[in-house]
Design brief:
The protein has 147 residues and is of the alpha+beta class. 27% of the residues lie in helices and 29% in strands. Strand 5, helix 4 and strand 6 form a beta-alpha-beta unit. The longest helix has 12 residues.
């Protein structure tokens, strides 16, 4: 079995103007939410506004495959993203989720062009790593974008 990788970029803040973000970046978000909204009836209220763009889960063993999707969509928008981050006082998080079989641990590395992109938009990186075992196959059943 191959691994699954999801990458996403989250622009977070308070009182974000989603239409300004959409028009300046020129890419439709995968999901947005406003502070105070709930992602489900038993979930706590969101603590911030968020504009999120995600690759969804990609079957691959190479993180570069998933990173290319984000870079191809947003790399030439880095100046616009940086301007938005400053003007709307946003935090930026680049999230990586790795799910892999117990017998095939992943390698985690970032190419220079990706690191340069992160530096330009002042993003932090958050990596979650999950090991799928026969006892815990449900990890792959978790719903997308539940944060």
């Amino acid at each position: 079995m191959t691994g699954k990788i999801r990458t996403e970029i989250r622009l977070m803040g308070h009182h974000l103007d989603f239409s300004a973000i959409d028009s300046q970046i020129g890419v439709a978000p995968t999901k947005t939410w406003k502070e105070g909204e709930r992602s489900g009836p038993d979930r706590p209220s969101r603590q911030y506004d968020c504009w999120l763009f995600s690759t969804g889960r990609i079957e691959t063993v190479d993180i570069a495959d998933a990173l290319k999707v984000i870079l191809n969509a947003l790399s030439d928008k880095r100046a616009a993203i940086r301007e938005l981050v400053i003007s709307q006082n946003m935090d930026v998080s680049f999230d990586v989720e790795l799910i892999f079989p117990a017998d095939s641990p992943p390698a985690l590395y970032f190419h220079r062009d990706f690191l340069d992109f992160l530096d330009c938009i002042k993003a932090r990186v958050d990596v979650d790593i999950y090991c799928e075992t026969l006892d815990h196959p449900a990890l792959l059943e978790r719903s997308e974008l539940t944060r």
